[in-house]
Design goal:
The chain has one domain. By secondary structure, it is mainly alpha-helical. Helix content is about 80%, strand content about 0%. Helix 3 crosses helix 8 and helix 5 packs across helix 7. The two termini are about 30 Å apart.
Length: about 240
């Protein structure tokens, strides 16, 4: 929780504001687009899915309707989150780089626009790696969400929190060219810190208006956590 609020305080730091604007703008545009798209499409999709319910189960319609709506909303939220993270990845990486410079005074070996553009394909490839890691697990936990009352919802929240930690902590790791599996191992070695941060981000994503700021807040907070908890330990092992 500490690092989430530290990330919030870093948003207004002089010298970092301009790097916050692009991820924030992307999040705002995609969130607005997702909201209007959802309003226009969700009723038709729900009606279509409810049409699969056999007549002899029609008495359960009022019980099934909220489940169907929730499944559609969760699926769309997952899809739009992945799209937002993919599009914003290079800018989030740049924000993370500038936050680390602000906190440590140490610049990465390669900086500048040319170095940034050279790294864009690698950054997008890293997002694809996270997507491939996340998708099959998300399908399993989403199935548990609907089949296991209470337990399924708890498992889904824990999975979401873990993925939030991976998603945002990965930016400073990737800036230092740390492999994806190494990053996961280090986060698993600090489950208390990882889940504390991931849960705070997951809860923040559910709060209206705050969720518009969550992406840059989480990038800043995850970078602060890398500097405080992981950077020294990682390089000490090399």
């Amino acid at each position: 929780m500490h690092y989430f609020f530290q990330g919030l305080s870093l948003l207004s730091t002089k010298g970092l504001r301009r790097y916050v604007l692009i991820p924030l703008g992307i999040n705002l545009i995609l969130f607005a687009g997702a909201f209007f798209y959802l309003i226009q499409q969700v009723q038709g999709w729900v009606d279509h899915l409810m049409g699969w319910v056999p007549d002899w189960l029609s008495f359960l319609e009022y019980l099934l309707w909220p489940v169907v709506v929730l499944s559609v909303v969760l699926s769309l939220a997952f899809a739009f989150t992945m799209i937002a993270n993919f599009i914003a990845a290079p800018f989030n990486a740049l924000l993370s780089e500038k936050v680390e410079l602000h906190l440590t005074g140490q610049a990465l070996p390669e900086q500048g626009f040319a170095a940034f553009m050279k790294d864009v394909p690698r950054m997008l490839g890293r997002e694809w790696t996270k997507f491939v890691y996340c998708l099959p697990r998300a399908l399993v936990f989403l199935l548990a969400f609907f089949l296991l009352p209470l337990v399924g919802q708890l498992l889904w929240f824990l999975f979401t929190s873990w993925m939030m930690a991976i998603q945002y902590c990965d930016y400073p790791y990737d800036n230092h060219k740390v492999p994806f599996h190494t990053m996961r191992q280090q986060l698993r070695g600090d489950l208390t810190g990882s889940y504390s941060f991931g849960m705070t981000v997951a809860i923040g994503s559910m709060v209206p208006f705050l969720n518009l700021l969550v992406m840059p807040i989480a990038v800043c907070g995850a970078t602060a956590m890398w500097v405080d908890r992981y950077k020294t330990a990682h390089y000490a092992k090399r």
